[in-house]
Amino acid sequence: MAGIYVHIPFCKQRCAYCDFYSTVQHHLVGSYVEAVVAEARMRQIEGEIKTLYLGGGTPSQLPVQHLCSLVDGLRQALDLSHVDEFTVEVNPDDVSHEFAASLAGMGVNRVSMGVQSFIDEELAVINRRHDARGALDAIQALRGAGITNISIDLIYGLPRQTMMSWQKTLGTALAVRPQHISAYNLSYERGTRLWLMRERGEVVEADDKTCVEMYDLLTSMLGEAGYEHYEISNFGLPGFHSRHNSSYWDFTPYMGLGASAHSFDGKNRSYNPPSLTDYINCVSSGKLPGVVEEAEWWEQYDEMVMVALRTSRGLLLEDVACRFGDKALKHLLSNAKQYFDNGQLVCSNGRISIPEASFMMSDGIIRDLMW
C-alpha cells in the first residue's frame, strides 16, 4: 500500500472549468468527517502507508476543528507512523498565518495550492476567488509556518491568456521558487460553466499552436531554472517529486476514502459513490461503499502503457512481458516501430519513453500503442 487519498468535496464556489465531484453543502461537514473516519476503520489496509493526501474539492474549506478531527481520526483508525509525505490541497484565499500554523501542527509537510495564474484578469474569467497577491501571500504564510515543500498548479490555454501573460505567470512562479509545479492544458469539459461560456461565444478556446508554444515555453523556463520534468504535467526540484502521485504512475496500490474517491489494489480499481448523502448513509449503516471495476487483461495493458509513457521513466519492457506475455510485447514493439524511426519514442536500458520534445504529441503515440 503506497498511500491514502481522502477526498474532501466541499468548495466555497465552483471554478468555471472544474468537473471534479464537489459540493457547497457545508452543513454536512461534521457528518462527512465522521463517515470518512468510519470508512477508514472498516477498510483492510495491507502494508505500510507511506503517503497521505487530502484532495478535493477544497480541503482548506474545512474548518480547522473539523480538519483536526479528521486527521486525528485517521491516525486512530490507521497506522500512519510510516507516512513521510502528508499533502493537503489548499486554495490561496483560505491560507492565513493561523491556518498555515494549524496545518503544520497537524503534521502536514507538503501543500499543493491551486494558483492557476498570476494574472488577475485570467483568474476572474475562470471564477477563481483569489488574486495574484493572495497567492503570493499564501506561499509566504506557509513558509513562515515551516511548511517548505510547496507545490503550485498552473493552467495554460486560459481564455484571454497570451504568450506574454503566460510568461509573466511563469516568471512570477519561478521568482518564489516553489519546490514543485504542476501545469495543465485547459480542457473544456461538457457541463462545466466554461464549456457553456464557449458554446455561447463568451470565451474563445486557445488554438493548438498557441498551446504548444505555451508548453514549449513552460518546459524551457522550468528546465533552465533547475526543475526536473518527470511527468508530462509535473516538474519538481531535485528530491521534490510528488511521492503520492508517483505511486499512481507506477501501479503501486493505494486506497481512496470519501465520496467519489478511487482505489487500486494492484489489479482492479474501485470507486465510492459521487454523492455526499449516499456516501454518508452507506457508511453510517455499517456498509463499505465502493463499486469494483474488474478490468480485462487488455484494459490493464492499455492503462499500463498510457500511465507509464506519461512519465520520463517510461515503460519497462520486462514488466510488459512478465505481466501480459510475449504477444503483448510483440504488439507493443511492432506498433512502436514508426515512432522509434521518427524519434518520437526512444529505447534505453530496456525502457521505452517519449522524449520531452514529443510530450505534446503523446496522446496520439500512446493511443497507437494500446491494444
Question: How would you describe the overall organization of this protein?
Answer:
With 371 residues, this protein is of the alpha/beta class. It has two domains: 3-249, Aldolase class I (TIM Barrel), CATH 3.20.20; 297-369, Arc Repressor Mutant, subunit A (Orthogonal Bundle), CATH 1.10.10. The protein is built from 14 helices and 15 strands. Strands 7-8-6-5-4-3-2-1-9 form a nine-stranded mixed sheet, sandwiched between helices. Strands 10-11-12 form a three-stranded antiparallel sheet, with no helix packed on it. A three-stranded antiparallel sheet has the order 13-15-14. Helix 1 (29-42) packs parallel to helix 2 (64-77). It is globular, with a radius of gyration of 21 Å. The model has no long low-confidence stretch (mean pLDDT 92).
What attributes characterize this protein structure?
single chain, 371 residues, alpha/beta, TIM Barrel, Arc Repressor Mutant, subunit A, 2 domains, nine-stranded mixed sheet, three-stranded antiparallel sheet, 14 helices, 42% helix
